[in-house]
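Q: Second attempt. The first request was missing the SMILES, so the protein and adenosine-5'-diphosphate are both included now.
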Amino acid sequence: MRTTDTPPALREDSSRPPNPLFRNLTAKLASLPMVLTALVVFVGCTGWTIVHSFTGSKLLPKLKWVGFDQYEKLWNTRRWLVSIENLALYGIFSLCFTLVIGFTLAALLDRKIRFEAAFRTIFLYPFALSFIVTGLVWQWILNPDLGIQSVVRSMGFTSFEFDPLYNASIVIYGLLIAGLWQGTGFVMVIMLAGLRGIDEDVWKAARVDGIPVWKTYVRVIIPMMRPVFITALVVITSGIIKVYDLVVAMTAGGPGIASEVPAKYVYDRMFSSQNLGQGFAASTMMLLAVVVVLIPWAYLEFGGKKHD
Amino acid sequence: MTDAARLLDGPRGPKPTRRLSRRNIILYGTLSVMALYYALPLYVMVVTSLKGMPEIRMGNIFAPPVEITFEPWVKAWSEACTGINCDGLSRGFWNSVQILVPSVILSIAVASVNGYALSKWRFPGSEVFFTILMIGVFIPYQVMIYPIVILLRELGLYGSLWGLVLVHTIFGMPLLTLLFRNYFTSVPDELFKAARVDGAGFWGIYFRIMLPMALPILVVAMILQVTGIWNDFLFGVIYTKPEIYPMTVQLNNIVNSVQGVKEYNVNMAATLLTGLVPLTIYFISGKLFVRGIAAGAVKG
Amino acid sequence: MHSVSIRSLDLHFGAVKVLQNLDLDIHDGEFLVLLGSSGCGKSTLLNCIAGLLDVTDGQIFIKDRNVTWMEPSERGIGMVFQSYALYPQMTVEGNLSFGLKNARMPRAEIDERVARAARILQIEPLLKRKPGALSGGQRQRVAIGRALVRDVDVFLFDEPLSNLDAKLRADLRVEIKRLHQKLSNTMIYVTHDQVEAMTLADRIAIMKGGQIMQLATPAEIYNRPGNKYVADFIGSPSMNFLEGDLSDGHFTTGGENLDITGYPFEGPATGAATLGVRPEHVATGHDLQGLPIQAEVAVELVEPMGSDTLVWTTFAGQSFRFRMDGQAEVRERDTIRIGIDPAKASFFDKASELRL
Ligand SMILES: Nc1ncnc2c1ncn2[C@@H]1O[C@H](COP(=O)(O)OP(=O)(O)O)[C@@H](O)[C@H]1O
Ligand SMILES: [Mg+2]
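A: Got both inputs this time. The predicted holo structure:
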């Protein structure tokens, strides 16, 4: 089929394709901060720390190789083992409770209730506060001599005992109460937004089919909110790993070393006890933990997509 | 309950006329108990900060003050001791303000340009950098903090205000870039194409078309950054010197300093003072923040 | 002079080859419609002409200038989009003048051009409004105005009427045609709606899978489709196809032997072929006079459409539809005599599907 008047040959070739490197140069220059951050900080600094975790650096980073010595030492340190145990415990509880409480509050608020805005404001405001503030308030409320324990005792329950900040075996729950108070509101808001994004027709259909409300949530709504749950999960996990300020403010790792966490171990080794190598090894272990958790998730999330 | 009845007072239907139905008691009961848990600490903070020390030692932390005193507030603001100096939180407050303003502006400026470039001017490799950035969200800060100390020292910024500003810009970048990228991706490509046909370039489209459209997301980003940077503790401790410690660091030093008798009322006043800036922002912009999360976080 | 010339254009999105070795010449002042089903690469081609997509290979000329690697704004084109793409935070006036301001035109001239475009498109009362306060039809007028003010050589339209309801679409279609008569610059118009294509175009380019299947006037495309795809695509209800064999002036299909004298063959008149007959070219009643192909068929289904009636039947063992006058009284199970004029029919080679 002829679609040209002259034979379809190239008539002139004055304009060669420009060097692809300089195409849309402004956009590339404007992205330079991002490129540098990605390469220098996220790749470069991470790699630097990993490399130096195999050195015997003390006060200053030195490339004096010691193989896995730092790691061996790390895993023979009781304080590190306690830190890991605390983080695991705190992480699991925090994850479960945040998701359950966050979703429940969101579902309750989504029931066309009165004073929704007031409730929402109350649930969310702690998220505006720092972990330092959170830790200090709860430190005060949980004060055994003047806080909740003494109030309950003065009401007649003289044998009541709840002093997590001074009791090594339950101190982690003290942190949990404060952590949940600070963070669940945010997850609730994410969930609420997800619930609001669900088509009203889904509810109508469920009602026409005679499915009870709770069953609609479990069988229809929650599966539909999968992406929302994933967002929430990502938000919560990245918060858990960073847990540091809360501990510093609330317990400073105590009583004894009962509430130490890995992030604090790293900080103390790097900046207080001048044992950089230990700090690097510990932080590399933190990274490894994240990788171990994230890779299966990434695989499920992105590996599966190719089949759709 | 028959299906027909369930249909009539179904959960999404009109509000039931019977106020005290079992459903309502459970619903509002649960919500109220939860609200108590969330509201109590704020109440305790306020009440404690208005009592004198004798009253605190005697009484119940939940009881309202018998005799209201603003002494603790004054002391927290201008006299409390951190272990190094005794001029209260005021110094930390002004330090935080000086850190906050440039950090918020710079981080949002950089991230919005990133998001814009990533959504409308993709170049070979741009997605790779974005992916690295997103993976970066999951890298614990602890892995990067020390090399950054070295980098800042090389740049001559270690211990200075601008060093901390840079750190906030870097670590705010992933989330903010994602936020802006998602927002600008939802701006129709045809609008962008129309602007290019109209002869606008990279910056022309950014300033004339995209930024004016991005007002809602700018506000969201600002809320996130102001609270995030104001509440930061770790970076403040690592990258600044005691003279320019932000408010959170000072607060912790005041409350958890081991010397002297614990003045709980002053501590709570100081804690409230530190929380006041982000709290004010939330109470003013609460709805916008919620809308922002709906737009940014859930979509991504 | 050619307004737009495209030479061996390739465009790939990664491994997906959307346009392949495409050649096209568009005359000065011509109204060319790119017509094809969704996903065939029409918008992609238009975006290449506009400079909004980097071509993989090939050259694009506008007014005999090689513009292959020029910025969109340097090409002398204006573009109108399906979603209008008005800048939401600017007034109508701001929208119209944005391109001119970017070109650093003096204020006085901008005002003059905006006023002129507003007059032509009758949007003067709207100049101070924001796009959000306009109806769909008004928005699209503003979008056209944005191309108009820039005084461009070539207008590019990407399905500009698809977001409008039927009545507005018809109105605005006429307006675009008037505009073309008045301005007489080149217009390239993408649509998937054949009515728009037939009514607007000087020539239509029918696209499929990134290639141009036929480039011709609407009448030519309707009467003498170049291949079976085009024949099937154009016309509603679409053409009847009967499979069979051609040999010495006859077409054997489904046991019938049809006399096809009068068909102007361009290709070989033998071999396996498909006969295409438009439903509206099937004769009944008085029109049967002298037609070489005639048959009695049983009415299976009747679809009255007011102005005419579509009758479903079986002819030569294959499903067959034809169109009758809207007032014709036909019922299911009636028997009716139909006739076909070979001169109005089309033959396609069975293998290549090209017109014979
Ligand atoms: N940015 C892109 N990346 C990958 N494929 C694309 C892109 N844009 C369009 N395509 C594909 O190219 C083909 C042609 O698209 P398009 O030109 O928009 O079709 P249409 O004829 O409907 O306008 C489609 O199959 C589409 O999926
Ligand atoms: Mg299209």
